[in-house]
Design goal:
Layout lengths: L1 E3 L4 E4 L11 E4 L5 E6 L2 E6 L4 E7 L2 H7 L2 E6 L5 E6 L3 E9 L5 E3 L16 H5 L1 E2 L1 E10 L4 E7 L2 E6 L3 E6 L10 E2 L4 E3 L9 E2 L7 E7 L4 E6 L4 E6 L9 E4 L7 E7 L4 E6 L4 E6 L6 E7 L16 E6 L5 E6 L4 E5 L4 E4 L3 H4 L12 E6 L5 E6 L20 E10 L14 E3 L3 E4 L20 H6 L12 H5 L5 E4 L2 H7 L4 E4 L5 E5 L4 E5 L4 E5 L5 E3 L12 E3 L5 E7 L2 E6 L3 E12 L2 E13 L10 E7 L20 E6 L2 E6 L26 E4 L4 E3 L9 H4 L2 E4 L5 E6 L15 E6 L5 E5 L4 E10 L14 H4 L2 E10 L1 H10 L3 H10 L6 H17 L10 H8 L5 H10 L6 H8 L2 H10 L3 H14 L2 H18 L2 H16 L66 H19 L3 H11 L3 H7 L10 H11 L43 H9 ...
Parallel strand pairs: 17-22
Antiparallel strand pairs: 1-33, 2-33, 3-4, 4-5, 5-6, 7-8, 8-9, 9-12, 10-11, 13-14, 14-15, 15-16, 17-18, 19-20, 20-21, 21-22, 23-24, 24-25, 25-26, 27-28, 28-29, 29-30, 31-32, 32-33, 33-34, 34-35, 35-36, 37-38, 38-39, 39-40, 41-42, 43-44, 44-45, 45-46, 47-48, 48-49, 49-50, 51-52, 52-53, 53-54, ...
């Protein structure tokens, strides 16, 4: 409602003696002038600019006669001031303007500025007037004066001798006798006998009083603390005609203030609370409406130490009340008791170093115009004795503080409640919560579900196309869109009284003293206009001029107006309501609006005073909810009028009992409207009402509801109840229900579809750390924090669902919840509801006869989010309440199993934490094992790492709860396995007749580094590690048995699994290939590797046009089998490529351009084979490769006398290149080579053969066969490889002829190998390749292998494959590999 803004301003009074320090401030009825009293001085201040105009100083002689000044009261026309003094005198001062047309302060403008042209009344608005103060009359009442009260043409004075004087403003009693309070009868209500009990005490007098025009009487506080209300029974004001009512139970009243609009009397009490009373219309008794009091929950250290209430003041628009206490502090409350601001806590009460400040003591305060300012006389004025000595200290000087406020537009323009924007108005600017107008061009699509900005950014499913002007703009951030009001308009029309915004948040209008101004958020321009005596409709596009206006003369002054679709509802000063329709008419080029009166309704019999009507709204809400209407299409028409009469919400709906008007009978131009029924009261203590005329079939509950804000009582919603599946409604069931609920913010707007309430909240910033010097500790910036207003919002759906469940309306709750299930925060709604009910019931001291938790639990099971909701709620609740929760929702073990069945592993992991706390370790280990195995199976590596730590923690008992999640970010793409940080894998091969030192191909693969999946330390060989290892081994075995090599690679890389040592152990068991053909097929599928294409008879090579360069690896063979006509089927290849991880990078469809296509993953090496024969060999050119080609380094041929068959023709080259184009994705190639390296080191040669086949590189096969010859290999493995290769050959002949050319290439090696396997291999000659071997040991063996057979199986030029590992380097790499495991530097991640 009202919010503090910035720092208070200080107005410095002229320096003088302590007797001239201000003690009291009182504004005139128009709040233009302020009378400031000091003990011997009366000053008049102007409000804008805030300047001192005139001062009257009492001479010492008369001051000693009259006593010090105490209070001041203005005459209603601001021409006189009455001042009471300590010795019972009233001094009447006349205020006269002086010096003719002269002004005290005038604005000065530069020549030629538009202001110089001047507008009428320019001087009056812009200048501070020069005034004279003259004492005209002195009246002696002979007793100290307790209270002064202006009442129309009279002044009512209460004195300490128990008398009430009625004095005319000219200073005469007009012969009227003073009324003795002892003669006024008091009773509990006006119905009891006329002779009520008299006060009966001689010394009773009135301590404070205030006149209430709308109740026609005085709220009074007596000196003994009793409170009451005195009303004249007839028009004459004499003792015989007065009667008082009082409540029996209040005996500590201190002060009073009345609210005329809501007919409320706020009595401050010595206890520190404020009791707000109203008068019962029927009995005349005083009824307690509500209390304003601080709670121990909010202010634990001060709530009962505030002292008595010192002052209570209602704002000019009657929408808030400000309260201050004897011990200091200031608080602001809405009409019906919602607390908005309190300076007894937070930054107001504590410095940034935590020390407590002295609270601000207030001696007197008065609201400025429209409530934008509060004038305050602070307590360190009169008491401070060190004024002379410490004149440098600004704060100790007597002065006036001006607190600045921003207020919600609802305080003055309640018809804004049908909009979904929050609009606040300050004295010269407006604050909007809608985004930039350019974003909000489109109206909100009811189908689009608006997302939180944050959620939308993160969510991969967020559809940025359907971004309605919903939560993203309304909740996107905490900042306001601030619009500065046009200065030209403000200068002559300050203060701004009303403002309004349109539905889309694109246009704003403000109204000051005269006329109005219009602002477009799209063009960022203001348009100005004057004259406001008639009801008008202006075109938004044209200038605001009467020439473009449609004018309708209203019969009486319009007090309120509101809009419903194309209808305007007007409430007038004669208590009548008039409905107008606005129609758009296009007459040729000009567009005009036509206004016609539709209906008039007189309300004078129900409304005692027109000023009491807070708001009037036309709505489509009715007690019928559209189903039972005779004509359902009328359901969203203007069905009823809602009238807020002093906080009572009255509804008048259309009378549908009579004959219905059929649409076709009535003339289309005349809208005949049904009459209204007599009014019914819907609710009490209502501050604001929200409703919408939009319709949405999916969210009928929310859109057809009526939302009420009821101050301290929270909010209420009048919700429609719908029968399910359009069945006939029960006759005994009400069709609407009023549900109360509490929210933590003050509501300023309701987003109907989004189930959100928007508001604003004051936040404070301390700047006292900038002022460290002692003298600066008294600066205003140190004493007060800087106040800012921030946007805020709150979900309310869980409150409504809960209220429906309490009332056994579960079916309605389900309908409502299902309609909102698509909202981004719906899971949070369910969680909040469960959490709140659990907290209340589980911590209740008394047993609950009918607990709600089981009902709520059953309700939540209707939604798929049930398992997450329960576990999130449990983890945010203390352990002590878990048993109560799970008694209602079910056993956590069962819920854990449900998560596993639903494949929701993250939620299952959360349940594991619950189980660990609630069950014995054996149970949590059993469930953790289940989850670990499932996570392994699904490749959830992050979860696997947590589970390993969790299982270790359970075993060691080191920690009660599982370790926290690592902060390292999981890489975004999944499926690949990456290499290890700081590690280069050296893949090299030595060829025949070429010394290894001279000829080696080194390739360093730099891989993206992922999170460290560091292996646990090997030395802690506890049972727990063994248990985890067993599970990991079992999983690896299963992956190999199912031929899931890709998963095995990911598994090893992600969990730091020691693959090579495990493969060595399992070489003859799990790591044996049982079915080569099946393995081959499976690898093709897993690695998205295309099967080789069947040769066609004709050649149509894409390489001939020169677009592609055949720079890839040449496969060379001694075989004379011509393998021409390898035509690539480009279609298949493209499809395969599209599934590759690298997406856009095709295997060979790239211009091979060294400058542009070197990727970050790979640095291609240049291969220049060095021959011992020097220049005798002719060496082909070496071309560099790119990431799109296979990982082979150069194409080159070596021509030798012995191997003339190696030289190939040009056409053969082209077709080989074509075949290479059908390789799989580059990433798969990297992965396959990595696996090849692993299997090679572990000695699983049968797997190496399979990978060599799929890579279709004869060099790999040759290398393996060479390895078999050079070292003694297990005979069983040899036999397995032999049968496997035969099986592949058979399969290729029948099912996959594309493999035949490659098999033909390697046929000679395979034949040699077959001969080898037929020889008897002596078993003891076989030495397993272990990590411990050093290069020195294996060196000689490599030398021995260089015989003629080796020469034949591996020609000189056959060195292309980078997957081949020379013996020396192989062992070195293996040793390095093992070492890196030992050191724990084996880092990995899913890429």
């Amino acid at each position: 409602m009202y919010f503090l803004s910035g720092w208070p301003k200080r107005l410095l009074c002229p320096l003088g003696s302590p007797a001239e320090a201000p003690i009291h401030v009182q504004s005139d009825p128009q709040r233009t002038f302020f009378a400031v009293l000091a003990p011997v001085r009366l000053s008049i201040w102007y409000s804008r600019p805030s300047v001192l105009i005139v001062t009257y100083k009492e001479p010492e002689k008369s001051s000693s006669q009259f006593g010090f000044y105490k209070q001041a009261e203005w005459r209603p026309d601001s021409t006189m001031i009455a001042v009471s003094t300590a010795y019972g005198y009233i001094l009447f001062f006349h205020i006269t303007s002086t010096r003719g047309d002269k002004y005290l302060y005038e604005p000065v403008y530069p020549k030629g500025s538009p202001q110089m042209k001047g507008t009428p009344h320019f001087k009056e608005e812009q200048c501070a007037p020069a005034l004279n103060l003259e004492m005209k009359k002195i009246l002696d009442l002979q007793a100290p004066i307790m209270s002064l009260q202006s009442m129309l043409e009279d002044l009512l004075v209460a004195t300490s001798d128990g008398l009430l004087h009625l004095i005319h403003w000219e200073g005469m009693t007009n012969g009227r006798k003073a009324i003795n309070l002892c003669t006024v009868p008091f009773s509990v209500d006006l119905q009891s006998s006329r002779a009520g009990s008299f006060l009966g005490f001689a010394d009773v007098h009135i301590r404070d009083m205030e006149y209430c025009a709308t109740l026609d009487g005085f709220a009074v506080v007596f000196n003994d603390g009793k409170i009451g209300f005195i009303t004249p029974v007839s028009s004459r004001f004499t003792a015989e005609q007065l009667h008082g009512v009082w409540p029996q139970d209040v005996v500590d009243g201190t002060c009073v203030a009345v609210n005329n609009k809501y007919r409320l009397m706020a009595f401050g009490c010595a206890s520190g609370s404020v009791q707000v009373y109203t008068i019962d219309n029927t009995t005349g008794a005083m009824l307690l409406s509500h209390k304003l009091e601080l709670t121990a929950k909010q202010y634990p250290d001060i709530w009962n130490k505030t002292g008595a209430v010192k002052l209570v003041r209602w704002s000019p628009d009657n929408s808030v009340v400000i309260v201050t206490w004897e011990n200091g502090g200031l608080s602001l409350w809405s009409v019906f008791g919602a607390q908005l601001i309190c300076t007894l806590g937070g930054d107001f009460a504590y410095r940034s170093d935590g020390t407590k400040k002295d609270p601000l003591k207030i001696n007197s305060m008065s609201w400025g115009a429209e409530g934008y300012h509060l004038w305050v006389i602070s307590g360190f004025g009169a008491q401070s004795t060190e004024i002379e000595s410490d004149s440098k200290s600004i704060v100790k000087q007597p002065g006036i503080l001006l607190f600045q406020f921003i207020k919600s537009v609802l305080t003055v323009n309640p018809c804004m409640s049908n909009q979904e924007q929050v609009l606040l108005q300050g004295e010269d600017r407006l604050y909007l919560n809608c985004g930039e107008a350019s974003q909000t061009q489109h109206a909100r699509g009811s189908s689009a579900h608006p997302e939180h900005k944050a959620a939308a950014a993160k969510s991969p499913f967020a559809d940025s196309g359907v971004e309605s002007q919903g939560l993203s703009t309304l909740l996107g951030h905490r900042h306001w869109h601030v619009v500065q009001i046009s200065n030209t308009y403000l200068e002559s029309n300050w203060p701004i009284r009303f403002s309004a915004i349109d539905k889309l948040g694109q246009n704003i209008a403000v109204v000051g003293k005269f006329g109005f101004a219009h602002y477009s958020l799209l063009t960022k321009k203001w348009k100005l206009f004057g004259n406001i005596t008639q009801l008008r409709v202006y075109l938004r596009t044209s200038n605001l001029d009467n020439a473009f206006a449609h004018i309708t003369k209203a019969q009486a002054e319009t007090l309120l107006l509101s809009v419903f679709r194309d209808m305007v509802i007007v409430f007038r000063a004669d208590c009548s309501i008039c409905l107008y329709s606005i129609e758009r008419k296009s007459d040729g080029p000009t567009t005009t609006a036509g206004i016609q009166v539709l209906q008039e309704v007189s309300m004078s019999r129900y409304i005692p005073h027109p000023f009491l009507v807070v708001s009037v709204t036309l709505t489509s809400v009715s007690t019928e909810n559209g189903i039972t209407l005779k004509m359902p299409q009328q359901a969203r028409d203007a069905e009823s009028i809602m009238l807020n009469l002093a906080g009572q919400l009255i509804m008048m709906q259309r009378d549908r009992s009579g004959p219905q008007i059929r649409e076709k009978d009535s003339h289309p131009n005349q809208r005949k409207l049904l009459p209204f029924c007599p009014p019914v009261v819907l609710a009490q203590s209502v501050e604001n009402v929200w409703t919408t005329c939009r319709a949405n079939k999916q969210k009928r509950h929310l859109l057809e509801a009526l939302w009420l804000s009821c101050g301290g009582a929270g909010m209420k919603v009048w919700l429609p109840l719908f029968p399910r599946d359009h069945r006939k409604p029960h006759s005994f069931l009400s069709q609407r229900i009023m549900l109360p609920f509490h929210i933590n913010i003050y509501p300023l707007a309701v987003l109907f579809e989004d189930a959100l309430v928007l508001g604003a909240v004051n936040d404070t910033l301390l700047y006292d750390s900038l002022y460290t010097r002692n003298s600066a500790r008294e600066q205003l910036e140190v004493l007060f924090p800087y106040c800012v207003v921030e946007r805020t919002s709150q979900i309310y759906l869980h409150h409504i669902l809960r209220q429906l469940l309490v009332r056994n309306l579960g079916e309605q709750a389900l309908l409502l919840a299902q309609s909102c299930a698509a909202l981004p925060y719906f899971p949070h709604v369910l969680e909040l509801m469960l959490h709140e009910v659990l907290e209340e019931e589980a911590t209740s001291r008394e047993p609950i006869p009918d607990p709600l938790l089981p009902t709520v639990a059953k309700f939540i099971t209707e939604f798929p989010l049930f398992l997450q909701t329960v576990v999130h709620c449990a983890r945010k609740t203390e352990y002590a309440l878990w048993n109560y929760l799970f008694a209602a929702v079910g056993n956590p073990k069962d819920l854990f199993e449900e998560c596993l069945m639903a494949q929701d592993l993250d939620t299952a992991a959360s349940y594991l934490i619950i189980l660990q706390n609630m069950e014995v370790p054996a149970v949590s280990r059993q469930h953790a094992t289940l989850l670990f195995n499932t996570a392994l199976e699904q490749g959830k590596w992050d979860l696997c790492r947590h589970m390993i730590r969790f299982l270790k923690a359970i075993g060691s008992g080191e920690s009660e709860t599982p370790p926290s999640t690592p902060t390292a970010q999981e890489p975004s793409s999944s499926g690949g396995f990456e290499f290890f940080r700081n590690r280069s894998i050296s893949l090299s091969q030595s060829a025949e007749n070429v010394p290894a030192s001279k000829f080696s191909l080194q390739k360093t693969l730099s891989m993206p580094s992922g999170p460290s999946g560091k292996r646990w330390s090997r030395d802690s060989d506890c049972a727990e590690n063994m248990y985890i290892d067993m599970m990991l081994w079992r999983h690896a075995r299963r992956l190999l048995e199912e031929v899931r090599l890709k998963d095995l690679g990911c598994f090893a890389a992600q969990l730091g699994f020691e693959l090579i040592s495990w493969l060595c152990k399992e070489r003859t068991r799990a790591a044996r290939v049982d079915n080569f053909v099946l393995a081959l097929k499976r690898l093709h599928k897993d690695f998205l590797w295309p099967l080789p294409i069947t040769p066609a008879s004709s050649v149509s090579s894409p390489f001939k046009n020169g677009k592609y360069r055949a720079g890839e690896q040449l496969l060379k063979s001694q075989s004379v089998d011509p393998f021409l006509n390898l035509e690539m089927d480009a279609g298949v290849s493209t499809v395969q490529r599209s599934q590759s991880w690298l997406g856009s990078i095709g295997p060979a469809h790239h211009e091979i351009d060294t400058a542009s296509s070197h990727g970050p993953q790979m640095q291609d090496a240049f291969l220049s084979p060095l021959s011992t024969k020097g220049d005798e060999c002719s060496i082909g050119s070496a071309t560099d490769l790119t990431e799109s080609s296979s990982m082979v380094d150069g194409d080159w041929t070596m021509v030798d006398e012995n191997f003339s068959t190696l030289s190939l023709t040009q056409s053969e080259l082209e077709h080989i290149s074509m075949e290479l184009a059908s390789k799989g994705p580059h990433k798969s190639q990297v992965q396959l080579r990595y696996l090849l390296h692993m299997f090679m080191e572990a000695g699983c040669l049968d797997w190496c053969i399979v990978i060599g086949l799929i890579l279709r590189e004869s060099s790999v096969i040759s290398q393996i066969l060479l390895l078999i010859q050079s070292s003694e290999v297990d005979g069983e493995m040899l036999q397995n490889i032999k049968t496997g290769l035969h099986a592949v050959d058979r399969w290729a002949s029948t099912d996959c002829p594309g493999y035949k050319p490659f098999l033909n290439i390697i046929k000679p090696q395979v034949q040699k190998f077959s001969e080898l396997t037929e020889e008897q291999v002596q078993p003891e000659a076989f030495q397993p390749i272990t990590a411990g071997k050093t290069p020195e040991h294996t060196g000689p063996r490599a030398e021995e292998s260089r015989g003629p057979s080796g020469h034949g199986s591996l020609p000189q030029g056959e060195v292309g494959g980078s997957g081949l590992v020379g013996r020396n380097e192989e062992d070195a790499a293996r040793a390095e590999e093992e070492e890196s495991f030992q050191d724990g530097t084996y880092d990995c991640s899913v890429s």
